[in-house]
Amino acid sequence: MSETSGMPSMTSPPPRTLAVYADNPHFAALVIAVQGAFPDAVQRVVIDHGELTLHLDRAALVDVARLLRDDKALHFEMLVSLSGVDYPAVEDGTRLHAVYHLLSMTHRRRVRLEVAVTVEDPHIPSLVGVYPTADWHERETYDFFGIVFDGHPDLARIQMPDDWEGHPQRKDYPLGGVPVQYIGATIPPPDERRSIA
After folding, report:
1. pLDDT band per the 50, 70, 90 thresholds, residue 194
2. Residue from 130, 115, 162 nearest 143 by CA
3. Measuring CA to CA, which residue among 3, 9, 45 is closest to residue 27?
4. Alpha-carbon gap, residue 18 to 106, rounded angstroms
5. Closest residue by Cα to residue 111 from 20, 7, 195, 34
6. Which is nearest to 144 in space by CA: 82, 58, 57?
7. Among the listed ranges 11-20, 93-102, 170-179, which one has the minimum average pLDDT value?
8. Among the residues of the chain, which ranges form H helices?
9. 33 and 74 in contact (C-beta within 8 Å)?
10. C-alpha–C-alpha distance, residues 146 and 133, integer Å
């Protein structure tokens, strides 16, 4: 069932009735379409602050995303953003989450997809083949959280140096400063600096 406060239970089953969607028939149509096409894909449905999140099995992610994009009644044609989240206190070990924000410009609706994995097995299928905008988002999520997007055309660091150790947005990443060396750096005189105006 839907959760409306606090961190949702990681074990609550997906709803099978329309009762929980009485306030929003679009949510009902979306969940019914996904569960009808892929009965085991949805692990949990969360409705909070008027927003719908589908927690998916990672094996079904690409198929569900393709359905949401191609079904004319749904038509979520744009991946707006993708980010990572680290919930270190999750009991089942699936602490790393990839969160996808989809937008239907046609129907003026949004939906969020979420996939959870463990640190030991951080693999999620890439969505670049469905939404090309996932390319750099997946690279950044890999860089900062260590989630590996299988099938990505060039999964390499995008913010941190190539030889950086670890993933700095994980909650267990050590805090502390990074030594910075300024070798050969010069500051030109004010009259030679580029003007902003």
Report:
1. low
2. 162
3. 45
4. 24
5. 34
6. 82
7. 11-20
8. 25-37, 61-70, 134-145
9. yes
10. 19
User: pTM value?
Assistant: 0.79
> What is the tens place of the pLDDT at every residue in 40-87?
999 999 988 889 999 999 999 999 999 999 999 999 999 999 999 999
Q: Which residues pair with 182 in a beta bridge?
A: none
Q: Rounded CA gap, 177 and 175, in Å?
A: 7
Looking at the structure, give the CATH architecture of the domain made up of residues 19-174.
2-Layer Sandwich (3.30)
Provide DSSP, 55-87. Answer: EE-GGGHHHHHHHHHH-TTT---EEEEEEEEE-
Residue 54: other Cβ atoms inside 10 A = 25
Residue 55 CB: number of other CB atoms within 10 A?
22
Q: Shortest CA distance to 15 belongs to which of 171, 34, 6, 134?
A: 34
Q: Which two tokens stand for residue 31?
A: 């969940």
Written as one letter, the residue type at 81 is: S
User: How is the chain split into domains, by residue range?
Assistant: 19-174
* Nearest by Cα to 38 from 15, 1, 67, 73: 67
| Pairing outcome for strands 96-104 and 109-117 | antiparallel
